[in-house]
Amino acid sequence: MLEVAADLLVHLTEKQHAASIHPLGPAVDADSNPHVPRRSPGGCPIDGASRDVELHTIYSLLVVAIITQAEVDTYERDGVVCLRQVIDPMWIESLREGVEANVASPSARARIWNRADDGSTTFYDSQAWQQIGQYRRFVLESPMAELAGRVMGSSRVNFFFDAIFVRTKGAQFRTPFHQDEPYWSVEGFDCASSWMPLVPVERKSALEFVRGSHRWDEHYAQQNFGDLTGDDRDQVTFVDDSTAVPFPDVEGERHRYEILSWDMEPGDVAIFNARMIHGGSGNLDPERELKVFNTQWLGDDVRVCIRERGMDPDHSEAMAERGLQTGDRVGTDLYPEVWRADE
To answer: pTM to 2 decimals?
Structure first.
């Protein structure tokens, strides 16, 4: 097995040289340069017949090892970075099985966000990792926590929650532009979400991000998703706040913003800061569906923040049951620490 690991490391080193990438230097954008090879699934060549759990673990370790400084800088500057082929197909297939089980047996938090006249639907569920084994294994054993930690520059990472989105073929429903962290029961800059499609997705149907918006100083009035979905469980009442300004009309004034999105394949992950303005997805062609497994990760500066109103999802009751109060660092079995940097 050590020989296999050595061979894989040589392969990745050769790829870095071929792409003019140095682990601590500038990287060429593979999307804009056809001569730069994309990372192969899991970061190395796949032989489906011989792949096993041990080799899969080596893949994950080596993929994380070649996260470049340029990718870290992109996340810091833009608020989002698209990492290509960093999740092994073994995980993708496992999560697909998990999604099928989830749709067949939703949690109490599941709902249909949109049901169009043509029969297309948008299914949503959250915190299902506690009942879906495939989700739980991904959260605790995949390289996702370390990927998030390294791009955030955090020394340790706790898992927050999962969110599952399944749009059936031809679904047009688009999620309004919004921010995540202002809704959450935690507060801090080092919050990252990972948007990971389990099927190929065209750029027009992928999640969109307003470049650099994670560093805007404005305090925005947030969207009440209950008005959009018609589901009472999505109703969010916000505290009257005279300092909040109207949320930017990104969809109506797209020309005013630099909006980022990508064609993505299974194995690609867009990691973004939870204060970033993002939205979209949907807009599917008649024969295309979209399945996304989204995970939220909490880094160094994040602390519990039980807000008076406006939390979605509202974790205040679960946090109180575990003795967590405003100002505490997250933890316990519900928000496990999954990764810590070597000291």
So the answer is: 0.82
